[in-house]
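Q: My labmate handed me this sequence with no annotations at all. I'd like to see what the chain might look like in three dimensions before we decide whether it's worth expressing. Could you predict it?
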Amino acid sequence: MLGAVLLFAALNAGAGIYVLNHVGDPRWSDGEPPLSAPSFSGTPMVGQFLGPLDSALNSVVGGVNAFLAFKQALPIALGFLGTSGWALMVSFPLGILATVITYVMDRRRAADFEKYRATVDQLKVELEQVKRQISSGNSFGTALPAGEQPARADAQGMIQVLP
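A: Here is what I predict for the chain of 163 residues:
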């Protein structure tokens, strides 16, 4: 769950950065055509002197168009970045919750492991007692339950039930 929230936040942040890197994309515009500067170079008699004014005016209009494109793309980018921020805010409590759950599960596993360890230690002690009884030749306390046949090992170490 936490990974999904963090992925959602990262994807939204990436989308916001993409929008800011491509402000001139028509997907973010309001559908208005970009501004264009009138040409003064075609004016009779003085048009040849107004050529530099055309290039300056085109430069200004280009800057205004870039500003308008940024102005139109900014709310979309902020929407993505805001959503990413909210997702990150949600991820902090989820991270704490995941940490607590992991801690509780680890404690439970450690307790189960200690219980199994105690059982194994007890079985080792009992095995040692059985080995001591077998090596000393005493078979008291090792009576078979009613109805069971004694077993013996053959030459290959396989255990066989005696008839």
